């Protein structure tokens, strides 16, 4: 099949692209390399089934660029967007544009090509939740007037575009609300908690915990996430649905910090810093829909996933 992956050079996009190529698909990767790294796709360029376009998906001309391939497009994974607060808060307008204009462009392409589309939304759509754990029916508690709003609200508006193209034009769209994802491929300067903790521990720097560490997250290893996205694309019953993709096991941030210290054998100290504005206090998905519709649930536990990630980070630090 011919598959378009936007954000192909990013963390999640590059993992998905490699998996799709391994299964014999033809993949057209699109990325403007604002936060993605072309080196993430090194092995993909070895495949005759891979094409890459350096382009901003929020530019409407991307539709024509992709139509010029003159091939049947079977599916579109729209993953393009900064995903770390470090990156989206430094580029708020670009983040808004890629999740609104970019989403509409990919939906329009899907409409013209009669293609299926999976939109990578986020657990940030729930904001700082007042309902715990979070099911897809919860409408969220998002602040529109704060530093995270450019990402949270843009993703939510992207979901609205998906709804309109599904209800008005019958586009086969599925929305994945993705919870915290990690693995060895997550850049060590990404700024998210797993990359921060492991990099700091391996370098012997202080482990920076924001708040008192009692806030919680649910961490999903990238292999599980990629498998969930593919099942979502393939599931006809999921058309027009929003589905949580994440690990339902919840950890306090201080637990994760101590586990990273244990697994790395680091002598780093833990330091505490003020909690960033609008930082969610709890986060855990209800995944009943994913289990019942997709037959999906995560398989990799946090300890095993962290061990894989730590070893890869350690190798990278040695060769830097």
UniProtKB/TrEMBL annotation:
Pfam families per record: Epimerase
Cofactor(s) required for function per UniProt: NAD(+)
Cellular component GO terms held in the UniProt record: cytoplasm
Protein's membrane topology: Single-pass type II membrane protein
Gene3D superfamilies noted in UniProt: NAD(P)-binding Rossmann-like Domain
GO term, biological process aspect, one: D-xylose metabolic process
Keyword flag NAD: yes
UniProt keywords, alphabetically: Decarboxylase, Glycoprotein, Golgi apparatus, Lyase, Membrane, NAD, Signal-anchor, Transmembrane, Transmembrane helix
Lineage: superkingdom: Bacteria
Keyword field contains Glycoprotein: yes
Places the protein is found: Golgi apparatus membrane; Golgi apparatus, Golgi stack membrane
GO MF annotation, one: NAD+ binding
This protein's name: NAD-dependent dehydratase
Organism listed in the record: Paenibacillus baekrokdamisoli
């Amino acid at each position: 099949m011919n598959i378009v992956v936007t954000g192909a050079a990013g963390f999640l996009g590059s993992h998905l692209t490699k998996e799709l190529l391994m299964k014999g698909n033809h993949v057209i990767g699109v990325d403007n390399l604002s936060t993605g790294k072309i080196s993430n796709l090194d092995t993909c360029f070895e495949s005759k089934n891979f094409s890459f376009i350096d382009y901003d998906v929020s530019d409407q001309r991307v539709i024509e660029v992709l139509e010029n391939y003159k091939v049947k497009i079977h599916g579109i994974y729209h993953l393009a967007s900064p995903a770390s607060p470090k990156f989206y808060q430094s580029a708020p307008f670009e983040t808004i544009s890629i999740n609104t204009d970019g989403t509409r462009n990919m939906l329009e392409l899907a409409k013209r090509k009669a293609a299926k589309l999976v939109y990578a939304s986020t657990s940030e759509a729930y904001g700082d939740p007042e309902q715990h754990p979070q099911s897809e029916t919860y409408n969220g508690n998002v602040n529109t007037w704060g530093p995270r709003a450019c990402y949270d609200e843009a993703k939510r508006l992207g979901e609205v575009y998906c709804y309109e193209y599904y209800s008005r034009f019958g586009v086969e769209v599925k929305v994945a609300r993705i919870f915290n994802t990690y693995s060895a491929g997550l850049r060590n300067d990404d700024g998210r908690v797993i990359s921060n903790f492991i990099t700091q521990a391996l370098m012997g720097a202080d482990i920076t915990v924001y708040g008192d560490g009692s806030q919680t997250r649910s961490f999903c290893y990238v292999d599980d996430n990629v498998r969930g996205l593919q099942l979502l694309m393939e599931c006809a019953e999921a058309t027009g649905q929003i589905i949580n993709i994440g690990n339902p096991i919840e950890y306090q941030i201080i637990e994760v910090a101590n586990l990273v210290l244990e697994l790395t054998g680091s002598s780093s100290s833990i330091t505490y810093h003020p909690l960033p504005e609008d930082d969610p206090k709890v986060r855990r998905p209800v995944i009943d829909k994913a289990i019942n519709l997709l037959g999906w649930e995560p398989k990799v536990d946090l300890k095993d996933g962290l061990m894989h990630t730590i070893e890869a980070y350690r190798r990278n630090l040695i060769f830097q």
